[in-house]
Amino acid sequence: MEAIILQILNGLDKGSAYALIALGLTLIFGTLGVVNFAHGALFMIGAFCAVTLSRILSLSHTVIDETRTDFLGNPAKVEVPYIYDFFGPEFGATLIDWAVPLSILFAIPIMIAVGVIMERGLIRHFYKRPHADQILVTFGLAIVLQEVIKAFYGANPIPTPAPDAFTGSFDFGALIGMDPYTVIYPYWRLLYFVFAMIIIGAVFAFLQFTTFGMVVRAGMADRETVGLLGINIDKRFTIMFGIAAAVAGLAGVMYTPINSPNYHMGMDFLVLSFVVVVVGGMGSLPGAVLAGLLLGILQSFASMSAIIELIPGINQVIIYLVAIVILLTRPRGLMGRKGVMED
Description:
Blueprint lengths: L1 H31 L6 H19 L2 E10 L5 E7 H6 L1 H9 L1 H23 L9 H23 L15 E3 H4 L8 E3 H23 L1 H11 L1 H6 L4 H23 L9 H16 L4 H18 L2 H6 L3 H16 L14
Antiparallel strand pairs: 1-2, 3-4
Helix pairs in contact: 1-8, 1-11, 1-12, 1-13, 2-5, 2-6, 2-11, 2-12, 5-11, 8-9, 8-11, 9-11, 12-13, 12-15, 13-15
Membrane topology: Multi-pass membrane protein
Protein name: Amino acid/amide ABC transporter membrane protein 1, HAAT family
InterPro entries: ABC_transp_permease, BCAA_transport_permease
């Protein structure tokens, strides 16, 4: 039972990342009809927003500390972050410690701007082009963005720790009535799942209960009719592209303490996220979320040592095998809509 609960928690952790990225992918496909292979790069850019803010907050200058000496007996030179000069050592150290959560505020405007520029500058020229053309151009854009990140930040992973308050583990077993310390799980991974559910809930609430969201949903169903009503649906879809980019970016920001950012992390998640979208059903937002969580849990169970000993390598292919089975039995995916990508 302990192993089962632990694997479910692991699956929800990774499945949350799949669901967030797949949600953004589905938003873009559902509104603009574009298959965006650069979406994984947006996840990567979000992660490096956290790296960038952490480095900005840690910028320092050299001062002479008269109370300390070096090995020659001279007053020691120490590096003091500039933020200490503005906010004092205690509050400055707290800001540096909480760099990852603070990166949420830093990343939102950046990701929206990146998304809008990407849509207006490139992708809008491919709306009426075949999906193969869209895949080629967005995949090329993803490679370019990946190489830009590699040039500025290097090829090695960059550790970006969570705040000290979330570095420990939570006794999940005791919470559900089991013996203490039978099921413990890192605080930050639990926080990531909660954060993902909040973002997903906010996106669904925005689309369901706001006038803007209602118009977007109407445009997804019948773009021409909405346009005939005098509504600038293209402008609203551009904003939705920016929102989808922000969702992917926030997923990357909060994932940095779990997986140290590197230039190819976007590609690592992209293919799996597209499988999630297809399994959930192209154009289906609930399907993307459901498939992300389910496939994350399935992959977690397939990674158990007992399963790997029985079927070596199954953890690497289980998602694709499930996708094949689902698409053979339900060609539109779990919650796919009729007519989507069937022309």
